[in-house]
């Protein structure tokens, strides 16, 4: 079998040339990074969990009409996606104060925000992904005013869907980061959701205990990252318990 051509490699994923023109294969690695990759580790099984969780969420978003780059799952670590031109702006949606927002504004972590807040960050590792305004984005040509409107509308729609999805399984969606890309279809260009949605790019807290079920466990040296991701996957129904179920009568006391 011929070796696939690597198109791009990031901190957590590798993109390979797809089987058809305009497609790519997105491979999820076990590499884990934080603080602009100054903290690194390889955590076995993390890539599989992120792939399965992101696949599940993107499939649901496709079903409700949110445009994404996701086509289908290929295996436990890979998915087939449409090739898009990534817009160099990360979109963060915050529902609850946490992380950098708490530190910058002195708001106690866990404080519910008056409304969902959208922030923009310029994707540039050398500059440590600085926070930017709409004025910066349009002035430097990273996105047009219409593309900004599209990204904001999609981000809020995704937030509404994810908030309900996670609340239904006892998880609070504190905040999350998404990326968007330009999908070229003939002479038409449209903005679609790209990258991934997983515990790597969401803050997820148990609604009863406030236990963290996301990458903060790695950032803050809490341990148990894979177990937390497994818990999210189990609650979503994408990770089936492999322990054999007991058959036959059960003793009732």
Protein described:
- With 253 residues, the chain is an alpha+beta fold.
- The protein folds into two domains: 6-82, Phosphorylase Kinase, domain 1; 85-227, ATP-grasp fold, B domain (D-amino Acid Aminotransferase, Chain A, domain 1), CATH 3.30.470.
- It is 28% helix and 32% strand.
- The protein contains six helices and 14 strands.
- Strands 8, 9, 10, 11, 12, 13 and 14 form a seven-stranded antiparallel β-sheet that branches.
- A hairpin with a 4-residue loop joins β6 (70-73) and β7 (78-82).
- α1 (46-63) runs parallel beside α6.
- The radius of gyration is 19 Å and the shape is globular.
- The termini are far apart.
- The model is unreliable at 242-253 (pLDDT under 50).
Topology at a glance:
Layout: E1 6-9, E2 13-17, E3 23-28, E4 31-34, E5 39-42, H1 46-63, E6 70-73, E7 78-82, E8 85-86, E9 89-96, H2 99-105, E10 112-122, E11 131-132, H3 134-139, H4 145-167, E12 171-185, E13 188-194, E14 202-206, H5 216-219, H6 225-236
Antiparallel strand pairs: 1-2, 2-3, 3-7, 4-5, 6-7, 8-12, 9-10, 9-12, 10-11, 12-13, 12-14
Helix pairs in contact: 1-6
Provide tags for this entry.
253 residues, alpha+beta, Phosphorylase Kinase, domain 1, D-amino Acid Aminotransferase, Chain A, domain 1, 2 domains, 7-stranded antiparallel beta sheet, 5-stranded antiparallel beta sheet, 6 helices, 14 strands, 28% helix, 32% strand, globular, disordered C terminus
